[in-house]
Amino acid sequence: MLFNSLHFLIFFPIVIAVYYLIPRKIRTYWLLAASYYFYMCWNAKYVLLLLFSTIVTYVSGIMLEKCPQEDKGKRYRKLCVAASFILNLSILFVFKYLDFGIASLNQILSHLHIELNAPAFDLLLPVGISFYTFQALGYTVDVYRGEIYAEKNFFRYALFVSFFPQLVAGPIERSKNLLRQLDKPAAPTFDRFRDGFLLMLWGYFLKVVLADRIAVFVDTAYGDIETYTGVYLIVATLLFAVQIYCDFAGYSVIAMGAAKILGISLMENFNSPYLAASVAEFWRRWHISLSTWFRDYLYIPLGGNRKGKIRKYVNLIITFGVSGLWHGANWTYVIWGLLNGAYQIIGDILTPIKKKMVGILDIKEDSLSHRCLRVVTTFLLVDLAWVFFRANTVFEALRIIKRMLTARNHWVWFDGSLYECGLNEKNFRLMVWGILLLFVVDICKYKGMKLREVIARQDYWAQCLCVIVAILGILLFGMWGAGYDVANFIYFQF
Amino acid sequence: MKRIKAILWIIVMFLLMAAAYKTAAFYLGGKTAYHKNGDLLRVADACDVLFLGTSHVTTEIYPMELWREYGITSYNISGYGHPMALSYWMMMNTLDYADPKVVVVDCYVMESDAMVINDQKFMHFSLDSIPFSATKVRAVFDIFDDFDSRAEYLWSFSLYHDRWDELKRDDFEVEYGQTRGAIFEVGLSEPDEFMIKDVKAEPINSVGVTYLRKIIEECQDRNIEVVLTFLPFPAQEDQQKVAAYAGEIAREYGVDYLNFLQMNVVDYETDCFDSYSHLNVAGGQKITSFMGGYLRDNYGVADHRQDGLTEWDEDYVDYQRYKINKIQSQESLQNYLVMMADESFSLCLYVDGESRIWEYEQYVNQVHNLAPEYEFPMLEEAIGRGEDYCLIIDNPGRTVTEYCGAEGGTTETSFAQITYKEKEDGSKGLYFGDSEESFVVERCEDDRIPTVQVVLINNLDGTVVDVQRFDEALRVNK
Questions:
Q1: Chain A nearest CA to B326, separation (Å)
Q2: Is A111 among the catalytic positions?
Q3: Where are the domains of chain A?
Q4: CB distance B13–A464 less than 8 Å?
C-alpha cells in the first residue's frame, strides 16, 4: 500500500477513527494489526520475515537484560548481540545480496577464465527490509549499551518494528524515541492534528506534484541516452537530484505527519540538504536517521575519528561503502557510497590548502557569495554521485557522464526542445515553479523558520484557505490516478 | 470556545473545498459523455422508449427524428462497443429516473463474454454522464473486478484531474448533445461481400446472453415491453447465426424480434458507412423511420407532439440547427448527399450537363436514395442525353419535380414557388418566389464552372439554410 494510493487514503482515516474511538489500552493492538495489514497488502507471506526479525530482536533484548554485566555475563551479552546481528543480517543477505554476490562471483571467476555459472535465486526483495532490520538491530545495540531497558511487552515491541507510517521507508527510528512514545502516545489535540495534516500535505506535494513530475523528464532522458544527450542529460541529472530528494523527503514527511496524527513524533529525516556547504554537512542533513544510525552503530564503534587520520579515512570509506551497499545490491550503489566518502576525505585533506587560498585571495568566508559558491559546489559533487545511484550499471553511469559532457547541443536550452522530453511546456513550467517553492521553503527551514508554525499563527480563515489551496493543488497538479501508474517511492527498493 | 470555533472553521473549510472541488471536477471532466448523454436525466422521465445496444444503435436510431415524424419521446443510451452487461447497467441506471413503456435492445455482440470494452475511453463515454448513485456503484462493482478500475469509474476525477493543461473554451461552456444520444456517421463505403442465408440458430452460452436475459426479465418485472432487434450490416454467416439465436430468445420470453438482416429496410449500396459494420446517416434515417412506425403500430407508443412538451419542440430546433451545421461542414458531394437523405429538409439539386458525375454509379444511386420510392425518369433521360438536370424534392409532402435539358417550369412547393428557367446568357437559373436572384449560378467567384449545385431548405421554417457548389472533383467549391 503506497501513501499516494487511494487505498491508503481510505485505510488511514479508518485507522485514525478507530484508534481514537477505542479504549487507550487496546490502541497498541489496533495499530499493530493496522501495521501488519499495511505490510501484508504488499506481500502477505513476507510478513513472516518481519515477524522473525521482531522475535529475534525481542528475545535478544530480554536476554541481554537478564545477563549480568560482569565478566561471564559480558561474553553472553556479546553472544546475544552477535546472534541477533547474524540472524537478521543473514535474512537481509539472502533476500537482498545473495544474487548480487553470486553474479559478482561469476563475473570475477569468468575474468579468471573459470566458468562456474552459479544460478541466481531470483528472490523477491521484501519491501522495507533494510529499514526494519536496521531499526530492530539498533534496538539490540541500545539494550546492550544499557541506553534503554528491554521492552517486555511483545506487542508494543512488535509495533515498534512495524509501525506502519515508517515501516517501509523510514525514518529509521531509535528505540529511545519511539518505544517510549508507543507506550504513552501524545493526547490528540487540534494543533497536533493540524500539524500532522499540514506535514502530510507537504509530503504529498513533494511526492505527487514534484517528484513524479520530474521523474517523467528524467526517465525519458535516461531511458534513451542516445537521443537525449548533452543538455538533456545535464538537465535530467540536475533534476534527478531534486526528484530523489522530493521522493524520499516526501515519504518521510508523510510518515511524520501520519505518525503525528496518531500521537507519535518521528525524527526529522531531511533538513534542507541541498543548502549544505560541504559534503560532510550534506550527510548531516540528508537521510538523517540512516546517517546517524551508521554513525552511532558503525562509524563510532570502528573508532570514528579517535584513532588518527588514516584510521578515520578508512572508517569513512567503510561506513560509506556499507551505506552504499545498504541502498542496493549493485556496484553502482557501492561506488556512489565510496564517492561520497572520497569527497569527504579529499575535502579533509584539502582543507589546509583551501584555507591558504582563502587567505591569499582575501575571500570573506562568512560572505553570502562564498557560502553560495560552496553550496553550489557541494550540490554539483553530490549530483555527480547521483548519476551512479540512478544508472543501472557502472558502465552506463560512465557513458551518461561522457555524453553529458561531450555532446554539443546548447540550443536545447533555448529552442523549446526541453519540452519534448516527456513533459510539455505547461508541465515543465509547473515543475520549475514547484522547485522554486521547495527552494524557498528549504531556505526558510534553514533559517529556522517553520512554515507550518507560520500558518498556525494565522486566523482560521487563512489556515483554511492554505489547506484548500494545498489540497486542490495536489489533486489537480499531482501525478496520480487512472491515467497514471502510481509510482513507487524510490526508497522502497531499499 | 476555541474548540467550537476550530470545528466550525473545519466545517466551513469542507464546504468551501467541496464547492471548489465540484467546480474543478466539472471543468476538468471529459466532455464527450456530456455530449452524448448529458441531457438524459433532464428528459428521462418523459421518455416512452429507450434504445440499448452497441454503436449500431448509436449511429442508426435518432430519437429526435422519432419525435419529428411520430411524436415519440425516446433516448438512445447505447454506446460504442457496449457489452450486454454495460447495456444492462445503463438501462438500470436510467430506470432510476425514467419510466419507459418500451425498451428496444439490439442483440449485436450478445455472443461476447466481455464485460468491458478494451478501449476504456468508450466505457467512460457511457458511464461518466451517470451521476453517483447506489445503482451506479452496483454497476461499477459488477462490471469491474479490480479496485483501481472501480475507483476510476466511481470517481472519474481521478482520471481527468490532470487535464488542466489542455482546458479549452468548450470545457467551460459545455453544450449538451442535441441528438438524445445518437451519433451521425457521415460517409459511404462499398459493403463487403455477404449473403443472407437461412441459417439455423445455435445455442449461445455467453455472458452477453446472460445479461440480455437479465434485461428482458427486469423489463418484464417492471411491465416494460421489450423489443429485440438485430440491426442491419453486411453480416457474415456467424453473425447471422447470432441473429437467429436472438430470435429464439425472443420466442422464449414472448417478446418481439426484428431481425433487420432478413428485412429490406436499407440499401447497402448507399447506406453503409464502413464496409463491414455500420450504416451511415442515410441508412440510419430509414431504420429510425421504420422503428417509429413499428413502435406506434404495435405498441401504441403515443404521439406527444400535441401534448405541450415544449421542451422537446425547442430541443428539436436545436437538433435541426445541429444537423445544418453538420451538413455545412461536409466537403464532398458524396457526404452531402448522405446527409440529405433526410425528410426534414427539402432540396434543389442542379447538375451541369457537362458534368461527369453520372459516370459514377454511386451518385446515381445516391440521388435515387433521396426519394427511394420515386422512379426519377428525367434523371435517366439527362444521363442518356448528357444534359443539365434539376431536381426539386419538397419533403413535407414528398413531392418530386425534375427538369431535363432546356426544359423549364414553375413548381409550387411548401416553402416557395420555384421557377427553373434559362437565363438570357443561356445558362440556367433557379428562382424562389419573385426573387430576381438565381440560386443556381453559371460561374463561381473563381470563374470555375460548378458541376453540381445544391440548395437546402429547412422544413421547419421554409428558409434556405445552405447553398453549396461542387467542383469537377465533386468537392465543395469554397
A1: 32
A2: no
A3: 6-185, 187-270+391-494, 278-388
A4: yes
pLDDT of residue B293: 96
Q: By the CB < 8 Å criterion, does A434 face chain B?
A: no
- A7 near B CB under 8 A: yes
ipTM of the complex: 0.72
Share the mean pLDDT of chain A. 89
pLDDT grade, residue A170 (50/70/90)? confident
For residue range B238-256, what is the model confidence (pLDDT) as tens digits?
A: 999 999 999 999 999 999 9
Q: What is the mean pLDDT of residues B60-73?
A: 95
Mutate to test the interface with B, among A1, A4, A474, A476 (most CBs of B within 10 A): A476
Chain B residues whose C-beta sits inside 8 Å of any chain A C-beta: 3, 5-6, 9-10, 12-13, 16-17, 20-21, 24, 28, 147-148, 151-152, 157-159, 161-162, 164-165
In three-state form (DSSP H/G/I as H, E/B as E, the rest C), the secondary structure along chain A is CCCCCHHHHHHHHHHHHHHHHCCHHHHHHHHHHHHHHHHHCCCCCCHHHHHHHHHHHHHHHHHHHHCCCCHHHHHHHHHHHHHHHHHHHHHHHHHHHHHHHHHHHHHHHHHCCCCCCCCCCCCCCCCCHHHHHHHHHHHHHHHHCCCCCCCCCHHHHHHHHHCHHHCCCCCCCCHHHHHHHHHCCCCCCHHHHHHHHHHHHHHHHHHHHHHHHHHHHHHHHHHCCCCCCCHHHHHHHHHHHHHHHHHHHHHHHHHHHHHHHCCCCCCCCCCCHHHCCCHHHHHHHCCHHHHHHHHHHHHCCCCCCCCCHHHHHHHHHHHHHHHHHHHCCCHHHHHHHHHHHHHHHHHHHHHHHHHHHHHHCCCCCCCHHHHHHHHHHHHHHHHHHHHHHHCCCHHHHHHHHHHHHHCCCHHHHCCCHHHHCCCCHHHHHHHHHHHHHHHHHHHHHHCCCCHHHHHHCCCHHHHHHHHHHHHHHHHHHCCCCCCCCCCCCHHHHC
Q: How many Å apart are CA B79 and CA B55, to the nearest integer? A: 5
A477 contacts B24? CB cut-off 8 A: no
- For chain B, the domains span 1-27, 31-318, 331-470
* 3.90.226.10, 3.20.20.150, 3.40.50.1110, 3.30.70.360: CATH of B31-318: 3.40.50.1110
Q: How confident is the model at residue B471 (pLDDT cuts 50, 70, 90)?
A: confident
CB contact under 8 Å between B165 and A468, yes or no, is no
CB contact under 8 Å between B9 and A461, yes or no, is yes
Q: Which of A20-24, A478-482, B55-59 has the lowest mean pLDDT?
A: A478-482
pLDDT at B438: 72
The kind and range of the H/E element at B389 are: strand B389-394
CB within 8 Å: A477 and B164: yes
* Beta carbons of A476 and B5 less than 8 Å apart: no
Q: What is the grid cell recorded at B76?
A: 438512445
Q: For residue A428, what is the nearest residue in chain B, using CA coordinates?
A: B165
Q: What pLDDT, on the 0 to 100 scale, is given for residue B59?
A: 94
- Smallest Cβ–Cβ distance between A482 and the set B6, B152, B165 belongs to B152
Is A426's Cβ below 8 Å from some Cβ in B?
A: yes
Q: How confident is the model at residue A452 (pLDDT cuts 50, 70, 90)?
A: confident
| B183 DSSP assignment | -
Sheet-wide strand order for B399-404: B399-404, B389-394, B345-351, B452-458, B463-470
User: So what's the pLDDT on residue B196?
Assistant: 85
Count the Cβ atoms, other than its own, within 10 Å of residue B221: 8
Which residues in chain B touch residue A478, judged by CB atoms under 8 angstroms apart? 161-162
**Mean pLDDT of all residues belonging to chain B:** 89
Q: Answer whether residue B436 shows pLDDT above 80.
A: no
